[in-house]
Specification:
By secondary structure, the protein is an alpha/beta fold. It has helices at about 10-15, 20-30, 45-50, 50-55, 70-90, 120-125, 130-145, 155-165, 205-220, 235-240, 255-265, 280-285, 300-305, 315-330, 330-345, 350-360; strands at about 5-10, 35-40, 40-45, 60, 90-95, 115, 145-150, 170, 190-195, 225-230, 250, 270, 290-295, 310. A 6-stranded parallel beta sheet has the order 11-10-9-12-13-14, sandwiched between helices. A 3-stranded parallel beta sheet has the order 2-1-5, covered by helices on one side.
């Protein structure tokens, strides 16, 4: 029987069409020198199926789930494939791609590694309908793991503090950058705009950022806010209208190439989140020579270092003042861009893979 070095399961790829967690495991597998297997029957995941190298072993691809009932069927099918792979046991290390501990009764004596991306369910349970379940899953999976990978020192400290895990069980391995820089210029964009990328709910702090933008928009008649992510919900549309910003705020759902254009042409990329495990958009901005204004909170100072203009995320006035400085001071803006270019080489998937292989090797 041929033994695979590392077995990955279905969870992240079943859960996400796009997203940081599935992107992490996709890139990790691409850059590892070890033999790997992915136990997956069907998914809507874009990364796996856009790449000819991974498409062949990624099961059935569906651009979207055709019916509501299909999600339950998909979960059962994928779970059965992962359980069969666990039962065969022809792997050296198991690396589940999310926190569901379904695998624990089936793993036997095999070691496993868990990657912890953040502790948002523990710190912001009010924003998650399934917070109690997720907290229980994560605690069980993390506590039983042979090794734990944290994606930042800040995340490691949160794991130690919130779950009382000995720090020597945790390895910090930063993400790499998947960002592209494209010459695409197909979007008709305002001459001056701020850019927001990603989810906008709860701890993402978008509403406070809207207050900061309202202050800046009152001073600059031609300043817009462009938001990349999901379509605005009714409550968001009503809130934007309440603030008198309907004509100044736009939403985009775009390709990677169009996202590159949005970063390249923005006056400032703003990241007001109260908490992140790592912060991929920071690297996307650096790749596209874009100045970054962001929260002095969680892992941001660790990841962005001196290449960020920081504000107090609990103060819309602090946000506005920091963004205003980047808008008004061309020398400061140029310096931020240059520092971002210097910082970017720290974050490569090749280095992520190298350090992750060292974690696997430690379990021999």
């Amino acid at each position: 029987m041929t033994t695979t070095n590392i077995l990955y399961d279905h969870q992240a790829f079943e859960m996400q069409r796009f997203g940081g967690i599935s992107r992490y495991f996709y890139e990790l597998r691409r850059h590892l020198s070890l033999g790997t297997e992915l136990s997956l029957a069907v998914s809507t995941n874009y990364y796996l199926h856009a790449d000819p190298e991974t498409r062949r072993e990624s099961g059935l691809y569906l651009p979207e789930r055709p019916y509501k009932w299909f999600k339950g069927w998909e979960k059962r099918w994928n779970r059965s494939v992962s359980l069969r792979a666990l039962t065969r046991g022809d792997f050296r290390v198991f690396h589940p791609t999310y926190y569901n501990p379904y695998f624990l009764p089936h793993l036997g004596e095999k070691p496993y590694v868990i990657t912890v991306h953040d502790m948002t369910h523990e710190l912001f349970p009010q924003y998650f309908g399934n917070a109690a379940l997720m907290k229980a899953w994560k605690a069980e999976t993390i506590r039983h793991a042979s090794r734990i990978i944290a994606i930042s020192e800040h995340t490691k400290r949160d794991i130690v503090r919130l779950l009382a895990i000995p720090p020597e069980r945790i390895d910090v391995v930063y993400h790499g950058s998947s960002a592209i820089r494209s010459d695409y210029a197909g979007l008709a964009l305002p001459d001056e705009y701020l850019l927001f990328v990603g989810d906008r709910h709860g701890y993402k702090n978008f509403d406070r950022f809207l207050l900061a933008f309202r202050e800046l928009a009152s001073e600059r008649r031609d300043l817009y806010l462009l938001c990349v992510g999901k379509t605005f919900k009714k409550k968001e549309i009503e809130r934007i209208a309440e603030l008198g910003l309907t004509a100044r705020v736009r939403q985009y759902t775009v390709s990677d190439a169009a996202l590159s254009q949005l970063y390249r042409q923005t006056a400032v990329f703003v990241y007001p989140s109260l908490y992140e495990g790592f912060g991929f958009p920071i690297l996307e901005a650096y790749t596209n020579e874009c100045p970054v204004a962001l929260s002095r909170a969680s892992c941001f100072p660790e990841i962005a270092g001196e290449a960020g203009a920081y504000f107090d995320p609990l103060s819309s006035e602090s946000m506005a003042a920091t963004i205003r400085r980047v808008l008004d001071d061309s020398d400061y803006r140029s310096r931020l861009i240059a520092l971002g270019q210097k910082r970017l080489p720290r974050y490569t998937w090749a280095e992520t893979a190298r350090q992750t292989e060292a974690v696997y090797a430690s379990l021999r």
